[in-house]
Amino acid sequence: MRLYGGSTQLLLCLTLTTIILTESTQPPFACDSSNPATKSYPFCKLTSPISTRVKDLVSRLTLDEKISQLVNTAPAIPRLGIPAYEWWSEALHGVSNTGFGIFFNSTIKSATSFPQVILTAASFDARLWYQIGQAIGLEARAVYNQGQANGMTFWAPNINVFRDPRWGRGQETPGEDPLVSGKYAISYVRGVQGDTFEGGGIKDGHLQASACCKHFTAYDLDNWNNVSRFGYDAKVTKQDLADTYQPSFQSCIQEAKASGIMCAYNRVNGLPNCADQNLLSNIARKQWGFQGYIASDCDAVSIIYEVQKYAKTPEDAVSEVLKAGMDVNCGFYLNNHTKSAIQKKKLLESDIDRALTNLFTMRMRLGLFNGDPASLPYGSIGPDQVCSKQHQDLALEAARTGIVLLKNSANLLPLKKTISSLAVIGPNANSARTLVGNYAGPPCKSIDPLKALQRYVNNTQFHKGCNFVNCTSASIGEAVEVAKKADYVVLIMGLDQGEERENFDRVDLVLPGQQQSLITAVAKAAKKPVVLVMICGGPVDVSFAKSDPKIGGMLWGGYPGESGGVAIAEIIFGDHNPVLPSCSSLRLPLQSWGLRESRIFDPSASSEQQWPIAGCPISFLFTLHVCVEWRIAIHASQPSHLAIWETGLALAYKAYDLTFAGGKLPMTWYPKEFTKIPMTDMRMRPQPSSGYPGRTYRFYTGPTVFRFGYGLSYSNYTYNFTSVTQTKLFLTQISSTNATFQNSDSVHYTPVMDTDTEPCEKAKFLAKVEIQNHGEMDGKHAVLLFVKQNIDQNEHGIENGKPLMQLVGFESVKTIAGKRVEVEFVVSPCEHFRTANEDGLMVIEEGSYYLAVGDQQYQVSVLHEDKSLNDLKSNDCGLRFSFGVLLFGFQIYVLLYILV
């Protein structure tokens, strides 16, 4: 986000908003039933459809009032009892005050800061993503109910594909895979807006909060080698648009039912996104059925004239975006130039009315025109929902399940808690601010990795090694001396927002400054192999650490949020996990029932580590008096595990389990040589003839440091396909018209643009995969199912544009040590087997497809047509012909008999 126009105006509006929010605890709303001057307006009649109410409201506005509502900071209209509204609020990974719609004060001081999205995505747990969205939506509504919000429209999630590893905003995204980005959008948006996990649960269209998918479209460059997002023209093929850049937005609109989308700064093939009528009105609204509002990124309208020179005048810029289908401008350009655009006949008032209809419809769907919100469905959500223990536990769980184990030589990790001394070294070790990444509001609480590690080892020595993450100067000698004295060493290095952020892309993929020299020197001097923790959003070439035997363990922690320091320490030491209980048979006398107890007490932990039982209904609590006191909970969520014998013995949950990193990388980690490729090259497909290797795991043909989906575990897993219900498909059966075609290589294909047709539904089949945990530890495990096509790997075959492989589905499953668990995937050939041809048409080609999980593969054949069916038809025709001949002969015989 950026605002350079009208800065004085903006500061004044922000100041006034701050004053209002500081002095009042009453949330702003319209249609106050106690106000006789406004309650009789038809737009306040709650029994009327929203469309009728909005039409009445817009008809009452003067032209100046209408224009004033087209910007993010929309002023009040006192004569109609309409309060001011701020469209710009942020909630990328927690409710934030980086926009102008949220204000924290002494009542609600902060909000839960979840891990940055790139790490959350590494869990490959769609239900976890939904729960995070739910928590953010609840906290957002609680802040509004307390009178600390002037808007309920949140400009998140960011679902652009993480195409290039240098992109400063890659940390905000779910990674490089379009399917993952789409599934993340579905889960997050449904959670925030108050929908069910499965969708379709929003009653009467009323929203808990509004989510906005951004940045539409093909936006993934901010500021690289003096190429700015404001002037950048992304040259994108129809093929790449169809199967890489657009699918996540289609999922966001069609499945998540997002109530907002944001058009991006950049141009695509010469046309500014916010002025692209085909993109906004035809594709988003007509083809995909979008029914929400469309916002511009901040100043994205002004740059159409001032930077891109696409429009000849400011009035032309305003006219272009409103006619294209944009509704609200983040900035003041529409406020300043719309009236003159109408006066110069470049714009009609009806174009403004169209935009206002979408904007006021959204505010009504949020319940902001329904009178006092205290009496409305979301009105009872109070400040106790913000920073609740349940949400803080969820933030910790998200960090735990996202952190990726990259290396574990000789099973160095987890460290034993009995070690006598520990050295912690690195500029990210004692920085709680770095953990939360960008677009973060003030967290509920935050413990940096150093403090979390000190809880495990009293004799912990710390040295930053570098004063700052850029590490332009380093005290390598001093850090080495600290390392020499310790039994074990943990290095916490990486990047921060000074190295990667909005409006700042990297120019290389190596650690900044002298970090690599510091790591190598410390590892060489240490008594035992060291543990390296990488705090960063984008990938870094750590090939040196991967091959160094003195670096025994390596973790990628992303930006793990307010609980990230605790999660890192827990994983390093394999500590107990009170959130993920495993079932254990405990024979305990039921003597003393502590029904008021709400905590599980770990006698080995400090008081700060005594965790409440969150998110689980408790049916019984009892106390067992032994040498120390243990309080153990029996969970009513699984009453089948509860049994009471005559002797007074019960089966209870053991509330402790060992924690280990279960995440998998949601993006490819490239070698440093990848930076020879210009970041401005938007092509996804490789071109061997020119040496271009392609991008992302779906097309990249070069070497990697770590591949997409890579992640180790403290347990070993094996996979096995136990059942695949379909092994042969026919193009003629998949096609809704039974039509097939041939491409230039004489390969048959059928177009599949819509995946919800009856033939596509019938073509779906199940693939069941068995996972066995061969380790000694329980834990979550992400299972990724891919599909590979039998591609000719020569130059011609690769340039044909087919993905090397692509993700079909993923599940995060709870595994028990030594046990097997089965996962069921629904495979939709129309969705998972299709690729884009050069014309941007989604097609399925005949050939061999291989479902792949781990090292296991299962072949599914797609054939042109069912020849046996054709044979049957031929035989049927033959039989009918023979019968006809016999019948004709019989008729001749009868005729002759009569004549004779």
UniProtKB/TrEMBL annotation:
Transmembrane segments: 879-899
One Pfam match: Glyco_hydro_3
Any one Gene Ontology molecular-function term assigned to this protein's record: alpha-L-arabinofuranosidase activity
Protein keywords: Glycoprotein, Glycosidase, Hydrolase, Membrane, Secreted, Signal, Transmembrane, Transmembrane helix
Main location: secreted
Signal peptide: 1-24
Domain Fibronectin type III-like: 781-857
Entry keyword Coiled coil: no
Compartment annotation: Secreted
Single GO BP term: xylan catabolic process
SUPFAM superfamilies: (Trans)glycosidases, Beta-D-glucan exohydrolase, C-terminal domain
GO CC annotations, alphabetized: extracellular region; plant-type cell wall
Annotated InterPro entries: BXL (IPR044993), Fn3-like (IPR026891), GH (IPR017853), Glyco_hydro_3_C (IPR002772), Glyco_hydro_3_C_sf (IPR036881), Glyco_hydro_3_N (IPR001764), Glyco_hydro_3_N_sf (IPR036962), Ig-like_fold (IPR013783)
Claim: Signal is one of the keywords in the record: yes
Origin superkingdom: Eukaryota
Family: Belongs to the glycosyl hydrolase 3 family.
Protein name stated in the entry: Fibronectin type III-like domain-containing protein
Annotated organism of origin: Mikania micrantha (bitter vine)
